[in-house]
Amino acid sequence: MGKNKMHTHRHYEEENEWGCGSWLEYTMVVVLASVLLLGSLALTLFWVIYYHNGFAWREDLSKQFNLHPVLMVAGFITFSGFSILLYRICRCCRRIYVKLLHTVFHALSIPCVAIGFMAVLDTHNLKRPEAIPNFYSLHSWIGLVTMGLFAIQFVVGFFSFLVLLCCEGATSAFRAALVPIHASFGLTTFMLAIAACVTGLTEKVIFTLGNSYSRMPEEGIIVNAIGMSLIALAILIGYILQRDEFRFRAHVLIRSGDL
Amino acid sequence: MGKNKMHTHRHYEEENEWGCGSWLEYTMVVVLASVLLLGSLALTLFWVIYYHNGFAWREDLSKQFNLHPVLMVAGFITFSGFSILLYRICRCCRRIYVKLLHTVFHALSIPCVAIGFMAVLDTHNLKRPEAIPNFYSLHSWIGLVTMGLFAIQFVVGFFSFLVLLCCEGATSAFRAALVPIHASFGLTTFMLAIAACVTGLTEKVIFTLGNSYSRMPEEGIIVNAIGMSLIALAILIGYILQRDEFRFRAHVLIRSGDL
């Protein structure tokens, strides 16, 4: 009860410190980031449904491939992006709830990435008369590195920031030391996911449109727009994470060992 | 003299605080980053000289194009990368010298980027029987955004951290507030440069090799290796910048108003 009171008090104090300009800036960047996170997924959905006839599983390989861009953007960009943003959006919940939501969002992106990965492997392996080789392109190599980093981040984060809470006092120094490393590698993983997406989009648009890409057909512009919304996200998420003012109550909770 | 003595003393104190492990880690990551910065440029040079017959200007358009990847990697990756790393490498110079070197390295990357940009415009515009359109691809759009951010960072950095030194006291609070923003956008610009490079490499390798790319010919592997060295740089530079221990003497110099 006493602890809660202190939190409420600090909360009130801190909110009062924020000027009108800070609130405006905070609202604008968080809203813009949310719009871009959902917008890039919506544009990808529009692209594959309108220009590539939607989805299927095995009965139509080209439609099965369509699952790949949509699920990868959903997992690596939309879910992961919101999972990162949560630490800035949830300004009035207890940190443990934010951490659990952060884990849930990242956990949701795992099936997306897994099914998106299987979809492209299937379309390569089942292609007739001849299977398409896997893992030859720069895009696939970047994708593999991104998935590896994502998996390491998830496992390390899960054990360090949730499981180790069982012996809270003894591990608080270790967990506090790990926070900036986890945060920095999280941002790097997000940036690599964007690099993987833009190389994938480039590959796909050249394979589909060939030389006509240079005449800027509608589909080319849509694909470029997806890529640019991802680039805008890279700039915006980088900016939001850097702004210490947007990081709510971290100093209070580090003190109370609630990392 | 007194100030110098204080610096030497703080320097000595801080070095003593670093354990053997920190020194080993610091040396390893800085050496590895330097090797990757030079290695990615060397690989790019090897690629265009060995597989695409080197350089020319206007008398041979395909050779003129070769200037584009080499100069862009030199400007946006090698020079910019070392310019960022300087703040970690120069652990015993006065901060003003580091800032001047940071400016010089970034200034050196300007002619590289400018000539690299002109080289690709020329090869597009002078192509016969028909000119190739400019700025249609996702790669070109990402490149334009990167150049824009780079230019803004350079101008803002130059005026804020060098020109405003003329009224040191009056502008110190403003300059101190700008440091994290400049640093964060600097890292983002570097990441976008890497995104521009990997999309460019993907474009070029598909236009050159076509379907044979999937059989992993030598050239494909070389291009992927260039891309992967850039991805490794993204991870490493992200890690180095995040490690506060590697940021030398910042607290001493913020106090002495030498920002």
TrEMBL record, chains A, B:
Domain Cytochrome b561: 32-242
Family annotation (Gene3D superfamilies): 1.20.120.1770
Primary localization class, coarse: membrane
Cellular localization per UniProt: Membrane
Cofactor(s) the protein requires to work: heme b
InterPro entries cross-referenced by the UniProt entry: CYB561/CYBRD1-like (IPR043205), Cyt_b561/ferric_Rdtase_TM (IPR006593)
Protein name: Cytochrome b reductase 1 isoform X3
Origin organism lineage: Eukaryota, Metazoa, Ecdysozoa, Arthropoda, Hexapoda
